Amino acid sequence: MTRAWVIGLMLLSFAMAGCREKASEALPPPQKLTADATGHYCGMALLEHPGPKGQIILASRSEPVWFSSARDAFSFTILAEESKDVRAVYVSDMGKAPSWEKPGADNWIDAHRAFFVIGSRKQGGMSAPETVPFSDRAAADKFAEINGGRVVSFAKVPPDYVLSSDAGAEAAKPSETSGSP
């Protein structure tokens, strides 16, 4: 009986350790966009800019790093000089946004699970080309049909599109990079 008890305790402890490990891997939740949020790169109030926004949760900060566009959030993840202790990247789900001018305060999606329209006629913060995020592929396809551009996953957004001042030309190039995240 003692041996069975010890084996049972060991199995229980392994199961508990596995649960704890999964809990620590869970993404921290996105924060609600408020009037106090200012863009990391532009220093301006996010609510003054149309289009999708971004927020990045870092392990080293209690508050998110805010971005006036989803494209700027991508830039942060690519640039070598930016922090690499990223816990989560969230972007506005434009399929659930009230409008382009008011992208919403709490309709965030994990950027790694989103579908992005690149190369559209819509411009984001600071009148720059935008990576327009959607949680639903059909909504992204419809947006691209109306506004131009193509649908790609997070991993397939070209770094040149994010970092280039001529991003629209890069996105217009045909490619087989469409797909699910």
TrEMBL record:
The keyword DNA-binding does not apply. InterPro entries: N2O_reductase_NosL. It holds the Pfam family NosL. Coiled coil: none annotated. The keyword Disulfide bond does not apply. Residues 1-17 form the signal peptide. Keywords: Signal. This is NosL family protein. It comes from Hyphomicrobium denitrificans 1NES1.
